[in-house]
Amino acid sequence: MLQDVLLLSTIAAFFFSCGHQKAETSDKVEVMPNVEINSAEISLAAKKFTLDNGLRVIVYEDHKLPVFSYQTFFDVGGRYEKRSDKTTGATHFLEHMMFKGSKNYGPGMFDGNLEKNGGSNNAYTSFDRTVYYENVPSGGLDIVIKMEADRMSDVLLEETSFESERLVILEERKMSYENSPGGNLYLKMMQTMFEGTPYGGSVIGDKSDVENLNRDQVRSFFKKFYAPNNAIVIVAGDVDTNDIMAKIKDSYGKIPASPDVVKIKEEMDKSNNYEARAKLPQNIKIYGSNPVPMFMMSYKGIKVGERKGFVMDILASILGDGASSYLNKKYVYTQKPPLTDISASNYTLNNSGTFFISGTLSKGVDLNKFTKTIEKESGKLCASAIDQRGLDKTKNQYMFGYYKSLQSTSGVASFLGLREQVFNDFNYYKKELEIYNSITVEELRKSCDEIFSSGKFLFVSIWDKHKKQSISNEQ
Q1: Which domain holds residue 384?
Q2: N or C: lower Cβ tally within 10 Å for the chain?
Q3: Across all residues in the chain, what is the average pLDDT?
């Protein structure tokens, strides 16, 4: 399943990750034998349109409540920023600036107009996409369309706001990484596993780049990627399809397509740009403020959309999702537990991925001994961790997760938009469900063995007993 702010792990979610979603699960969900995930049980009668300038629009009518969700997906994220151009963090910087004024709606007007209409808004940036969204009562539709079209046409980038947001972003970065042991650990994992690739850093950007990005660089980046032929608008809720399409065509139809974006993306998305360069196995120890060690054990993964990725989703859930998962029962919920928490995550990106286990040691547990123990035991866990009951339980939880994600108009809009943006098909969930339903115990064990028997993994730990090192500006 897909979601940008991942439920893969708390750390991955907090630090702007994206890819396959592990379903939000509950150990209280009753386990049913031989469960089948039936795509026919979910049917979203949405309609898709494409304007002459390339803008894709998806409309889903739901008149149960007088509200709607309006979401704009731009097919741009951290992976399209170049370190050679010193533009890392440009996408995230623009996320902030898009709320600070556009051609016809100056500073403060975007939030002010939404508040007057009883609405709320936010945005998020990942390596693979940027999403802006509003949740508004039905009467606010006209102003939302006008404001969203205006900021797609031309963001203001007013100097005072630009410099003010630079300080906000630098503080955000400091709180996310330098002052956060979990964030620092996650960043080091990403830098090492994806070294030399567009994923080998942070979406917030390198510190030195954020400090020195100028308005001309950010505007040039905006003109390349923030165009109708690189965007998808999703509207879900109490709207009329014919009415909304007439209004969208009127407001967006005159915005020109970007003549270069397709060629630029094709060049930057060549597979050789994402070839794994990490030297594995490798053990990295970094200094942090935490008095007990935290760790990540990371293996090479695969990109989103491949069948094996769906298998690895299920595997991660069985191993580390919830109190009854295999790793939690083995290392946390046991007598004299060596860990206070543990999780397993399958993080699939558009062009790469990683499978990792993360956790925190209990007070007094020897890190070196535990490292050797988990390395040894991970090579032989597959046969005992995976059985039919666990697979049935996870499939049932995934179905529950699908239903839960569709309980609100914003959930439906995000659900449709993610699949359209990643697969060019908002109905892709039907294929997802068929794949999950067809996964077998044997397939899971094979995938599990391929991951853990390789011996090629990155083990990163952070602790206040590790040697203190200075934090690089490239972090």
Answers
A1: 2-38+272-463
A2: C
A3: 90
CATH number at residue 229: 3.30.830.10
d(CA 93, CA 105): 19
List the beta bridge partners of residue 67: 137
In the DSSP assignment, the letter for residue 155 is B
Amino acid at 79: R
Nearest-angstrom CA–CA distance, 23 and 399: 8
Q: Is residue 471 part of a domain?
A: no
Q: Last residue of a domain, which of 270, 288, 309?
A: 270
Query: What residue ranges in 201-338 does DSSP mark as E strands?
Result: 231-237, 282-287, 294-300
Q: What confidence tens digit (pLDDT) does each residue in 26-67 have?
A: 333 233 333 344 555 788 999 999 999 999 999 999 999 999
Looking at the structure of the chain, the number of domains it has is 2
Return the residue matching tokens 């400090």: 211
The amino acid present at 33, given as its one-letter code, is P
Residue where a domain terminates, one of 270, 289, 304: 270
Residue tagged 């044997």 (tokens): 442
Dist CA 391 CA 436 (whole Å): 10
Least confident piece of the model among 38-52, 71-85, 308-322, 363-377: 38-52
- 467: pLDDT strictly greater than 70: yes
Strand partners, 360: 294, 341
Q: What pTM did the predictor assign?
A: 0.90
